């Protein structure tokens, strides 16, 4: 029998169980990378394991299931034999997949590296970093670099964000919850007006809509439910309009349809009209002119139940569609009906509802001016179009930069089409400066139209300069 060894016997942990000082273990980093790559492709766990088993095609004993994938993604087990199949499904190399985890695994562990001289010399303070320009020892550079990669790769950060919990829904909806949805709609509308409907505005909007819609499944008193439906419907209108602006048209149609349903369940004719007006405008913009006109007319089906400001907004939607059809007299009649409705608006007697609080003197002139702009290209009243659009530009504040930029761009379009390229270039250049700060596909497309209308005026220095700037701006949009 072998005698026991003398001295203290220490059970050494495996390498993967020792966390590095500045980040997850290599196994955790690898799991986070796998999860992030899967999530980026929109695959569910079921879809991913199906793809993995198909890619392995018998090259790996057994098969993988969702529980195994969970253990991999949470860093509990390292999928060593499955790495080639995972990399194949993700369309990357094994080396790319291993990335930060392998770098970290090969870096020195805490306690195995002697402290370099500068770390004890009192220079470098909190981080133990030598003076600028001095040389880091190779092992120190490797450790710092590997730790940074493990902690800061986009995949790792995405997995971290995805792992964050959601706010729990209340068991029963309170009036404060309805207020929160209204506040979210107001905040998102402000961001959309200033910056356009794309980018972070769109992603934030989708997350908030999901939370609001889930409230509809919670307990709610019969007296509060119409208010909740109205709040969710209003949020959906804001998000649908933002999706339209960023050309996520399928999403916009779904969300605006949801808004219409919420309004109808709530018995809110004004919000229903507002949602249908946006649906009309989107279809008109997309060239579905008959459908666009139908939505606007559906909104006006019970005009007696609408406020004058709501009727004006819907008549404008009609005018926009009729103008795109080239129906000059019908467009003028719709603009006239809008003017009449707006003239009967009395804010002291009939306060503007929250979903129409954007509609003021400037908005009315801009909206009607856009319709007149379209028929000006067919010989309509160009001067009246420019006058109305200029009134909108003068009245719009910095809270609605997109509306101001769109109106200014339309002024340039009318001027260019009717033979004043010099002034059109001045106005267009100013519009471009604002559009360049937006994420608005609609504004970019308006500039493309202006670029086309400027073709006959090539050789004019101001026009050529404008055309060059438009090319740069729409490329970056």
TrEMBL record:
Domain of life, source organism: Bacteria
Xref: Gene3D superfamilies: lambda repressor-like DNA-binding domains (1.10.260.40)
Molecular functions (GO terms): DNA binding
InterPro entries linked to this entry: Cro/C1-type_HTH (IPR001387), Lambda_DNA-bd_dom_sf (IPR010982)
Positions of the UniProt region annotated as Disordered: 1-27
Domain HTH cro/C1-type residue range list: 64-97
Classification via SMART domains: HTH_XRE
Protein name: XRE family transcriptional regulator
High-level lineage: Bacteria, Bacillati, Actinomycetota, Actinomycetes, Kitasatosporales
């Amino acid at each position: 029998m072998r005698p026991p060894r003398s001295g203290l016997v220490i059970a050494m942990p495996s390498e993967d169980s020792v966390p590095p000082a500045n980040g997850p273990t290599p196994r955790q980093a690898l799991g986070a990378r796998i999860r992030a790559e899967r999530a980026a492709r929109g695959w569910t766990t079921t879809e991913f394991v199906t793809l993995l088993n198909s890619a392995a095609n018998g090259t790996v004993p057994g098969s993988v299931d969702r529980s195994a994938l969970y253990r991999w993604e949470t860093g509990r087990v390292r999928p060593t034999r499955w790495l080639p199949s995972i990399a194949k499904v993700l369309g990357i190399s094994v080396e790319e997949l291993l990335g930060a985890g392998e770098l970290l695994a090969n870096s020195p562990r805490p306690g195995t590296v002697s402290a370099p001289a500068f770390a004890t010399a009192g220079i470098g303070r909190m981080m133990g970093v030598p003076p600028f320009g001095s040389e880091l020892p190779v092992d120190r550079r490797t450790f710092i670099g590997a730790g940074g990669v493990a902690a800061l790769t986009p995949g790792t950060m995405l997995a971290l964000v995805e792992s964050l919990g959601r706010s729990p829904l209340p068991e029963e909806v309170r009036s404060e919850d309805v207020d929160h949805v209204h506040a979210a709609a107001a905040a998102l509308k402000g961001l959309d007006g200033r910056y356009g409907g794309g980018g972070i505005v769109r992603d934030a909007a989708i997350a908030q809509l999901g939370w609001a819609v889930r409230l509809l499944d919670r307990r709610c008193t019969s007296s509060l439910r119409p208010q909740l439906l109205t709040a969710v419907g209003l949020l959906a209108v804001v998000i649908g309009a933002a999706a339209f602006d960023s050309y996520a048209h399928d999403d916009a149609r779904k969300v605006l349809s949801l808004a219409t349903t919420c309004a109808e369940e709530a018995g809110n004719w004004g919000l229903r009209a507002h949602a249908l007006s946006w649906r009309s405008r989107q279809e008109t913009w997309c060239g579905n002119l008959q459908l666009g006109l139908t939505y606007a007319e559906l909104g006006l089906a019970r005009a007696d139940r609408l406020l004058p400001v709501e009727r004006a907004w819907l008549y404008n939607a009609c005018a926009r569609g009729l103008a795109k059809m080239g129906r000059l007299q019908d467009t003028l009649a719709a603009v006239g009906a809008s003017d009449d409705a707006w003239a009967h608006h009395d804010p002291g007697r009939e306060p503007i509802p929250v979903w129409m609080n954007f509609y003021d003197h400037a908005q009315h002139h801009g909206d009607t001016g856009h319709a007149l702009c379209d028929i000006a290209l067919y010989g309509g009243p160009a001067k009246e179009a420019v006058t109305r659009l200029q009134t909108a530009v003068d009245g719009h504040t910095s809270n609605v930069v997109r509306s101001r930029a769109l109106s200014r761009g339309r002024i340039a379009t009318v001027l260019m089409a009717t033979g004043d390229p010099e002034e059109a270039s001045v106005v267009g250049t100013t519009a471009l400066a604002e559009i360049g700060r937006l994420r608005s596909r609609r504004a970019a497309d308006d500039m493309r139209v202006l670029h086309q209308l400027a073709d006959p005026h090539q050789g004019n220095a101001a026009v050529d300069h404008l055309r060059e700037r438009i090319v740069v701006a729409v490329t970056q949009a």
